[in-house]
Amino acid sequence: MLLQLAADGLAIRTPGYSVSGEIQCPLTNKKKHIAVPVTEESTVNLEQPQLEAMFSGTRVDILSYISKYPFIVYLSHKGRSVPDSIRKPGIVEFGCIVLYLDNLQQYMSQEKRGRYSQVLRNFVAHSTAERHWLVHPRETRVIEILNGQLEFWLTQQEKEYYKGKDPASYRCAMCKATWCGYSRECESCGTHLYTSEKRPQR
Ligand SMILES: [Zn+2]
């Protein structure tokens, strides 16, 4: 029925979406969690979408274009999970919203008035329930930004940790290497277990 409605064009409310990551500094043991928004909640108007179209070798329910980006709506329910092939179709910039149909009846029955088709259309156009972004066209770039922010935080932590500390002289009893620096880990042996430290005399 949703496909029949979509044939005349479909407005769909899309939820907000952000990516997040966590990192721990091995020196200070502090943890940092960062979330970066990919998109705000919005409404997308699909005019003349292609129904049950092929997208990169996978049959998708609704295929449309927003600016130049392919935009897919995949209808999912128990027994019809999203195929992995949609996630990595060989192009980076496209969007895919998965709409879950299993609990739809429950939302429909809350609406006493109106024709079923209109209630369904309203639910798709105005609610953000029962759907999520599987892929967003900006996602890859935002993940790069996120990783940059996590790395920046880690560098700041390291600077903080070493601030006011003098470099020390080290000697590894295993490979006999000596070095001067902030880390007691022997680079050749990959461990600090055989390292002894000698603080420079001031
Ligand atoms: Zn060593």
Structural summary, described in words:
- There is one protein chain.
- With 202 residues, the chain is α+β, with helices and mostly antiparallel strands.
- The protein folds into 2 domains: 2-155, no CATH class; 166-198, no CATH class.
- Helix content is 23%, strand content 37%.
- The protein is built from 4 helices and 12 strands.
- The strands form 4 sheets. It has a 5-stranded mixed β-sheet with strand order 5-6-7-8-9, with no helix packed on it.
- The mean pLDDT is 90.
- It binds zinc ion.
- The site of zinc ion (ZN) has 7 residues, from loops.
Topology of this structure?
Layout: H1 2-6, E1 10-14, E2 17-24, E3 31-39, E4 42-46, E5 50-55, E6 58-66, E7 69-76, E8 95-100, H2 104-110, H3 116-126, E9 131-135, H4 139-162, E10 168-172, E11 178-181, E12 195-198
Parallel strand pairs: 7-8
Antiparallel strand pairs: 1-4, 2-3, 5-6, 6-7, 8-9, 10-11, 10-12
Zinc ion (ZN) is lined by residues 172, 174-175, 177, 186, 188-189.
